Amino acid sequence: MVRILGLVVAVILLVVWLVLMPKERPTVHADIVTSNFALYDAVRHLMPPEIDVQMLLPAGQDMHSFEPTPDDFKRLTHVQLFVYTSYGLPVTLLDFVAQNEVAQLRMDSEIEWRQFDKHRHQHAHGDTGHVSQASIDPHYWLDVNNQRNSLIYIATMLQEKFPAYAPYIQEQKLDYLAELESLEEHIRNAFVQCEIESFVVSHDAFNYFAHAYGMSTHAIQGLSPQAQPDPATMEAVIEMVESERIATLFFESFVSDTVAQTIAAQTGCKVDMLHTLANIDAPVSEGQAQPTYSSLMRENVAKIAQARRCQ
Questions:
Q1: Which of the pair, 258 or 198, is modelled with greater confidence?
Q2: What's the domain range around 232?
């Protein structure tokens, strides 16, 4: 009896040790990895469910402060394809992709890039090791035409790499293009007649959107969502908000709204959130609807149209 009791105790202790012992973080397998949410949404739509498509950035991670981990490097060496644009990515990641045998689809040549206005951009990334952030705006996907061109190119490359799925990819491409056409029509109809010409954001991410759809945007914090504006900038923004009758200040979905709230308290504005679509706010729970490029863009359009008092 004593021996049996001792054996039972030993088994219990072993189970407790196995549960509590430190575990290595597992390296997540993926067939295709993308560098931002807009690319992820396009690739996920084009490929069948048996192909595992993932984003490189963890959900809720700001693109501008992202630094890859050893697990990220390991994951990229095993994927069938890494789909990315270089602007906005850390130099360490770009060097790794260039110096190692990473199957890749670099999208830079397919994008109609825009440069920041030198007078308003705060060069927030001067010392962060990110490529050309002082001149090139990485948020290309907020112009639907760029998303459309990206999709067409990606579909062609995926059909070449995965010929067995070529008919499926072609069908899905046409479906996505129809969705983008509907989205663009919705955007243009939303801004036909507006009382206010511009909108104000905390993060300088909406230049492509404003340029494509006939409006202007004012940014409080420049490119970096973590940058803190100096008192002169704050004063200038407050004067602009009051003179242009701005009623809403927008902040980025997973960045603090402290600066926007400070200005709102002095001007009587309300504060609301926009999606930059570089990433999603949080992991999608089981049973929860997966956000899409189109659904997030439509949310943005509704809020911006209301802020600009559009009919």
A1: 198
A2: 190-283+290-307
| Integer CA distances (angstroms), 119 to 4, 148, 233, in order | 80, 30, 12
- Identity at 213, one-letter amino acid code: Y
**Confidence label for 22 from pLDDT (cuts 50, 70 and 90):** very low
Amino acid residing at 95 = D
* Rounded CA Rg of the chain: 23
Which residues, 6+ apart, have CB-to-CB distance to 289 below 8 Å? none
Query: Same domain, yes or no, for 218 and 302?
Result: yes
* Residue 230 and residue 149 share a domain: no
Note whether residue 5 is domain-resident.
no
Q: Where are the alpha helices (DSSP H) in the chain?
A: 2-20, 37-46, 70-78, 91-99, 144-161, 166-190, 207-212, 231-243, 258-267, 293-307
Evaluate whether residue 93 is within a structural domain: yes
Q: Are residues 157 and 199 in the same domain?
A: no
Number of domains comprising the chain? 2
Q: Could you tell me if 37 and 171 lie in one domain?
A: yes
Report pLDDT for 222: 60
21 Cβ contact list (under 8 Å, min separation 6): none
Q: Please state the φ and ψ torsions of residue 154, each to the nearest 5 degrees.
A: -60, -45
Residue ending a domain, choose from 152, 187, 222: 187
Q: β-strands 81-84, 104-106: how paired? A: parallel
Q: Please tell me whether the overall predicted TM-score, pTM, comes out greater than 0.90 for this model.
A: no
Comparing CA positions, the residue from 127, 120, 40, 29 lying closest to residue 76 is: 29
Q: What is the pLDDT of residue 289?
A: 79
One domain for residues 174 and 298: no
> Where is pLDDT greater, at 211 or 204?
211
d(CA 114, CA 122): 16
Q: How confident is the model at residue 250 (pLDDT cuts 50, 70, 90)?
A: very high
Beta bridge partners of 54: 33
